[in-house]
């Protein structure tokens, strides 16, 4: 192992830059050359590689997004496209590749490994939807971004005695809604993993009003969607002014939290260690506070389990 490359793929997540920094500086410390790949798999196919040194990753640990940028790449989904990517790495003399992204990015890394490229994946996604790891890079920062937003919404909702329905990211994973909902004292948390009754929701809101509640906060995961439609329904059924707020891509930005910076740094260091050990087609994670690594196929096949205990706690605390 003499030269490695690093790329970011899929949706950006706070902490990706910290991971890039850790990969680059760890590799240089161990005597390896490092190449950065711009625009993910698209840049890899197009040969957008450049050498990186310690200065390349100076003053980036606090920045959101990714300095390497990211892009969609339909061509990489084809066998021809992947072979072109493998050929580019061979031309540049790259022996190993670190891929920072989500499940789609990991699938790409797995397919590249079958073409003789040593690949290691780091979980960079705010959704926290990878079952093999307790936390993904960017999840904690996204939670703090959501919490800051709902704290502000509570102020105006209290003034107007409104119901606020806040839609957050997460696709088919309700972790952002659940964790931010508990931290923000939400009266209702609606996630894809659990069925919910609109009429029961309205009943809870009306009961709260009778108890003197000035406002209600409802967290809604985007995997269910329809925040505006739900707001209209609640207002019609309860007679209480209801507003929907869709936070959208604001959740992807911002300076990463301490947790995400440290997590990304630990994972980036581990990725380089694995490559030096001759490992390939592995993904780095964290379980019970310890950095782990798993086979990509096995990691992607693990069925995600919803935190029923935390959800039950949220139901108790919302009353």
UniProtKB/TrEMBL annotation:
Q: Which UniProt keywords apply?
A: Allosteric enzyme, ATP-binding, Cytoplasm, Glycolysis, Kinase, Magnesium, Metal-binding, Nucleotide-binding, Transferase
Task: State the superkingdom.
Answer: Bacteria
Q: What EC number(s) does the entry state?
A: 2.7.1.11
* Location within or outside the cell: Cytoplasm
Q: Which EC class does it fall in?
A: transferase
Query: Which amino acids does the record list as binding substrate?
Result: 125-127, 162, 169-171, 222, 243, 249-252
Q: Which GO terms describe its molecular function?
A: 6-phosphofructokinase activity; AMP binding; ATP binding; fructose-6-phosphate binding; identical protein binding; metal ion binding; monosaccharide binding
UniProt pathway annotation: Carbohydrate degradation; glycolysis; D-glyceraldehyde 3-phosphate and glycerone phosphate from D-glucose: step 3/4
Residues reported to bind Mg(2+):
103
Q: According to its UniProt record, what is one Pfam family this protein matches?
A: PFK
Cofactor(s) for this UniProt protein: Mg(2+)
| Active site, per annotation | 127
Q: Which reaction is the catalytic activity of this chain?
A: beta-D-fructose 6-phosphate + ATP = beta-D-fructose 1,6-bisphosphate + ADP + H(+)
Classification via InterPro entries? ATP_PFK, ATP_PFK_prok-type, PFKA_ATP_prok, Phosphofructokinase_CS, Phosphofructokinase_dom, PKF_sf
Positions binding ADP in this chain are 21-25, 154, 185-187, 211, 213-215
Q: How is its activity regulated?
A: Allosterically activated by ADP and other diphosphonucleosides, and allosterically inhibited by phosphoenolpyruvate.
Provide GO CC annotations from the record.
6-phosphofructokinase complex
Q: Which family does it belong to?
A: Belongs to the phosphofructokinase type A (PFKA) family. ATP-dependent PFK group I subfamily. Prokaryotic clade 'B1' sub-subfamily.
The record's subunit annotation is:
Homotetramer.
Q: List the PANTHER family hit by this protein, alphabetically.
A: ATP-DEPENDENT 6-PHOSPHOFRUCTOKINASE (PTHR13697:SF4), PHOSPHOFRUCTOKINASE (PTHR13697)
Q: What is this protein called?
A: ATP-dependent 6-phosphofructokinase
Q: What is the lineage of its organism?
A: Bacteria, Bacillati, Bacillota, Clostridia, Eubacteriales
């Amino acid at each position: 192992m003499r030269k490695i490359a690093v790329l970011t793929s899929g949706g950006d997540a706070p902490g990706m830059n910290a991971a890039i920094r850790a990969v680059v500086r760890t590799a240089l410390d161990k005597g390896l050359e490092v190449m950065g790949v711009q625009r993910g798999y698209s840049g890899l196919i197009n040969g957008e590689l450049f050498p990186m040194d310690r200065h390349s990753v100076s003053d980036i640990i606090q920045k959101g997004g990714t300095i390497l940028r990211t892009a969609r790449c339909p061509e990489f989904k084809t066998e021809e496209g992947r072979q072109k990517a493998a050929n580019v790495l061979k031309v540049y003399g790259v022996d190993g590749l670190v891929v920072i992204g989500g499940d789609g990015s990991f699938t790409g890394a797995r397919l590249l490994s079958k073409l003789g490229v040593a690949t290691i994946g780091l979980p960079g996604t705010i959704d926290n939807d990878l079952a093999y790891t307790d936390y993904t890079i960017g999840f904690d920062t996204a939670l703090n971004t959501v919490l800051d937003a709902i704290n502000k919404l509570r102020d105006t909702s209290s003034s107007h005695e409104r119901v606020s329905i806040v839609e957050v990211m997460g696709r088919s994973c309700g972790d952002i809604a659940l964790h931010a909902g508990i931290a923000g004292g939400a009266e209702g948390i609606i996630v894809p993993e659990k069925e919910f009754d609109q009429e029961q929701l309205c009943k809870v809101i009306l009961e709260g009003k009778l108890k003197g509640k000035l406002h209600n906060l409802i967290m809604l995961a985007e995997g269910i969607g329809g925040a505006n439609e739900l707001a209209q329904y609640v207002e019609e059924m309860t007679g209480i002014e209801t507003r929907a707020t869709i936070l959208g891509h604001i959740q992807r930005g911002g300076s990463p939290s301490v947790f995400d910076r440290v997590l990304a740094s630990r994972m980036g260091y581990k990725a380089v260690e694995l490559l030096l050990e001759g490992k390939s087609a592995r993904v780095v994670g964290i379980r019970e506070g310890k950095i782990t690594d798993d086979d990509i196929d096995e990691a992607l096949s693990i069925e995600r389990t919803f935190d029923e205990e935390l959800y039950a706690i949220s139901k108790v605390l919302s009353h």
